[in-house]
Amino acid sequence: MKNSKVHHLSRLEQSSFQLLFLAAVRTLDTLEKKWYKKTSSLVNQDTPPKPEVLKVDRFGGLFLIGGVSLVIASKVVVITYINKYRRSDGSESLPKGIVTRTSNLEMRPLWGPPNKRNPKAPTISLLAMAVGQKQKTNVNEIVKKFPEENFVVMLFHYDGVVDDWNDFEWSSRAIHVSAFHQTKWWFAKRFLHPDIVSEYAYIFLWDEDLGVANFHVGRYISIIKEEGLQISQPGLDLTKSEIHHRITERQNGTKVHRRIYKRSISGVMCYPNSTDIPCTGWVEMMAPVFSRASWRCVWHMIQNDLIHAWGLDMQLGYCAQGNRTQNIGVVDSEYVVHEGLPTLGGTAGDKAKSAPRQPNIRDEVRKQSVVELNIFMNRWKNAIREDECWVDPLQTTEHNSTGRVDS
After folding, report:
1. What is the DSSP secondary structure assignment for residue 122, as one 8-state letter?
2. What are the backbone dihedrals phi and psi of residue 205, each rounded to the nearest 5 degrees, phi first?
3. Residue 70: per-residue pLDDT
4. Could you give all domains of the chain from N- to C-terminal order, each with its CATH number?
5. How would residue 123 be classed by pLDDT, with cut points 50, 70 and 90?
6. Which residues, including other chains, have CB under 8 Å from residue 148's CB and lie 6 or more apart?
7. CB 231 within 8 A of CB 322
8. How far apart are CA 101 and CA 84, in angstroms?
9. pTM score, two decimals?
10. Which residues, in sequence order, are bridge partners of residue 335?
């Protein structure tokens, strides 16, 4: 056996190697965080990010470390990442071409060719409402405002009554879902997954107690497109509506408003340079309208077990696809009346008939809503604390934008 020289590392060489190893670990950690931030918006896309997006960081790391081990590790990370977003969970064993990730609410015939949609037809949107039999007349007036060629209608029946709606012509083409005593947010979380409603340009997730005599949906959509509103609601007629927040009040003589310039109902004073709720950047939840992109974000924020969704409106800015002070607003020229009927948990007549010792159902629902609000806000704080990679997008978009304070 030939003699072989064994090279023993000096202390200086050992220290240098240790520093190089630590640099490699830190660099990989940094690259992982950068890749996460750069590509977090691609989670729900069919196509994976292009390797070129990662090339600069990867070779920057190679330059710093200069080790073959990092070349291998880098390639493994990139390949693993790309494969992760190329395949949906559960579809790994299927050929890519057979995987259908999205769906819709379009009904199909039991036999014969399907009715082909006119390619020149306008974009389709969705109207979804939680409804009860006692509000049939008002719901009918709302649905008639949404033309068949432009909208799919989906009704969530919280009282379990479905057949009594068959006397309306449009009922046979509507999607009916029934579950006793559930809120529209319970239904929305379970039946309006973004991959199911991805074909619809806008999602109108409305309450049943809205007066629509002064509302035209075609003009409304034209306005929110023109104004670039990702999340919106029609203004509320101040003289006839139950108002909870001044941001929702219809402003006379304007088409759209994005902020208020007076003291809010909660006592907060709003100024032209205010950038936070309750002054700007949000709408209430009785008649919200979401773009396709914003709904994908909002759906993920809805908590599965918090069915009243209190607190969700205060965080809508995170789903505004940009500056919330510009991309969220109230349409004044197309407005509605919010009657504020106590339909959830019973009607006003039911409360009058309740036995003296029975709890007031409406009050109990409100108490539960407050409990859920506190739970949601605590979860939000904990999520921020636990997610080391998260960067608050509102701070970035609002500090880097000049914004508009004239509407």
Report:
1. P
2. -110, 90
3. 54
4. 11-86 (no CATH), 125-345+367-399 (3.90.550)
5. confident
6. 170, 173
7. no
8. 14
9. 0.75
10. 235
